Amino acid sequence: MQATSEVGRQGHEARAALLAREEEARPVIQLEGIHKTYTMGDVEVHALRGVSLTIREGEFVAIMGTSGSGKSTTMNIIGCLDRPTRGTYILDGQDVSELSKDERADIRSRKLGFVFQGFNLLSRTSALENVELPMLYAGVEAAERHRRSVEALHSVGLAGREQNNPNQLSGGQQQRVAVARALVNNPALILADEPTGNLDSRTSVEVMEIFQRLNRERRITLVLVTHETDIAEYADRVVVFKDGRVKKDYKVTAPRDAAEELKNLPAVDDDDEETGAAELADAA
Amino acid sequence: MNFLMIIRIAFRALARNKARAALTMLGIIIGVSAVIIMVSIGQGAQASVQAQIESMGTNLLFVSAGAQNVGGVRSGTGDSGTNTLTVEDLDAIRREVPSVAMVSPQINARAQLVVGNQNWSTSVQGVSEQFPEIRKWAVGSGDFFTDADVRTAGRVIVIGQTIADNLFPGQDAVGQTVRVSNMPFRVVGVMARKGQDPQGRDQDDTAFAPYTSVQKKILGSTRVSVAYVSAVSAEATYTAQQQVGDLLRQRHKLAAGVPDDFTVRNMSDVAEAANQTNSIMTILLGSIAGVSLLVGGIGIMNIMLVSVTERTREIGIRMAIGARSSAVRSQFLIESVVLSLTGGFAGILLGILVSVVVPWMLGWPTLVSTASILGSVVFSAGVGIFFGYYPARKAAALDPIDALRYE
Ligand SMILES: Nc1ncnc2c1ncn2[C@@H]1O[C@H](COP(=O)(O)OP(=O)(O)OP(=O)(O)O)[C@@H](O)[C@H]1O
Ligand SMILES: [Mg+2]
Prior knowledge:
The structure holds two protein chains of two kinds.
Chain A: H1 2-10, H2 13-21, E1 27-40, E2 43-56, E3 60-65, H3 71-78, E4 86-91, E5 94-95, H4 101-111, E6 112-115, H5 127-138, H6 142-155, H7 171-183, E7 189-193, H8 201-217, E8 221-225, H9 229-232, E9 237-242, E10 245-251, H10 258-264, H11 270-283
Parallel strand pairs in A: 3-8, 3-9, 6-7, 7-8
Antiparallel strand pairs in A: 1-2, 1-4, 4-5, 9-10
Chain B: H1 3-15, H2 18-55, E1 60-65, H3 87-96, E2 100-115, E3 118-127, H4 131-135, E4 139-142, H5 147-151, E5 156-159, H6 161-167, E6 177-180, E7 183-191, E8 206-210, H7 211-219, E9 226-231, H8 237-251, E10 262-266, H9 267-310, H10 312-321, H11 325-362, H12 370-396, H13 400-405
Parallel strand pairs in B: 3-8, 5-7
Antiparallel strand pairs in B: 1-9, 1-10, 2-3, 2-6, 2-9, 4-7, 5-8, 6-7
Helix pairs in contact in B: 1-11, 2-9, 2-11, 2-12, 3-8, 9-11, 9-12, 11-12
Bound molecules: adenosine-5'-triphosphate and magnesium ion.
């Protein structure tokens, strides 16, 4: 029990309380009194004013809050894209609040996966190569790279689409490629900032289904920012931000099940269209 | 993060925009091929002049009337004014200078050669019977004229192949009679074909007659402006040059301090002069071409800068995914080097191709030098690094959050 011994060594009261509340699960994210202040000329913008938050292995957390409340700022700090002005951040047992640019890049490569609102795939680059990209930077061997990206694309339901470029894929499919890319380096944590912001409701459910599956089957820790209450209901914990602070933090008693809902939705999936076309061709 | 991976990343990034990559390379392709072509034309000219000079033999000396000024242009006498070089001078050189083996004046005259109703205007050169040996130019058929022909100013002539082809098409010219300035001359031989000189003049469009005959019968003058002197051996050339000079000064009664009224040059002097002009040409042509290479390099920098701005989001994605700044910098630097090196290699191929086609199309000799190829490779790699460094540094300095937000 690595987590227990670690927490025990530190012997923090707050942690002890948390440990008592949560079960054995190891904390993946520990934010302690995080402040972030942007200075623009003479004006100081206090984006975060003391955020403390612990997220444990295997949790699926939705972050909500009004625009400008500091959600993206928090995500950037959690994602080691940015450093807090004040406070400590322990990621997967390692203090990362003071790391250099290169050290943070290495952490992102090894421990984190990102999914963005705008997909952020490389254009004119096949789905397969997009998914291979993080492994290139992590120095994974060619054969292994190929095997893992095919597998990742398969797990997000894009088998057979390996050679398609982003402009040959629908928004939902592009976001699934992005999810495959995020999970291909086996990260401790996947961060998604408004992943369904550009998707229609049905495709949103499809993407949430993948997230829920990854979370349940592989115990991947997920943190997701959303504006939509119904999307947040797929998570099992919701953290609400207001004015750079955590305003509410609660467990979702009965999270929605995306897989169940998909079964009840009318089938207009493009994969079905394809099988339909194949059947027509067979009949002719 | 290993280097091979970054190279792979750079190649993939270039492959995503092939048309732009090709256009960027075009500048380098043109620059490199221009350098190679220009240098090869310059070197070709140099080599053919050199070959020409070497074929004349290293023990050859040129004696000409008149002093030589700094620019290498003869001044004073020679073609006009007082005649400072005489047949007697040449006889004295032949008799009195032990290191001299052979002597022949070269007296140029233009004359009409007529056979029946055929008419050919050409240069008739008055030379001695030793001319073929001095100039290492053999007689093709028949014989050269003899010592006796020179003494008696005999009406004999040896013609070049071009003249033979035009005046006696399909016949043997030897033994025939040709009218030179209205006097019948007997053709005793036809020279072996020699082809064009580096300036593109047909060397076979010349006839040779005893210098005595040319002086008395064609020109009516005893002037000698140029003579060939051959030393007994290559090693003796320098001694011969000194001794010929001393003898001529003595014969012309020049007091100490008075400059020479003649010029004695050896082949390396001639070669050097020719080399110098050719090198200047080569350098000039090469530098003009080099400027276009520089412009090509600036083109690469321009495209790379545009590329960094245009691909800001891509850079953000790469950084978010785990690329270190150094990996991004290397990627852009490698992209730029790949562009310039690929352009460089394509330019080398094009340059070689054109250098091969030019002699065939324009008749100019070319010589592709390994130095210009190696230089181009090094230079284009240098261009890639130099002009790629700044854009690459700009890319690496981007902040991932700002880059991801960039529209
Ligand atoms: N780079 C920056 N420079 C200055 N101020 C910034 C910067 N980034 C964010 N801010 C400010 O910090 C505050 C929090 O911004 P943040 O992007 O975290 O909000 P958000 O909760 O993600 O909002 P939204 O829901 O609109 O995405 C805002 O007031 C914003 O203007
Ligand atoms: Mg935001």
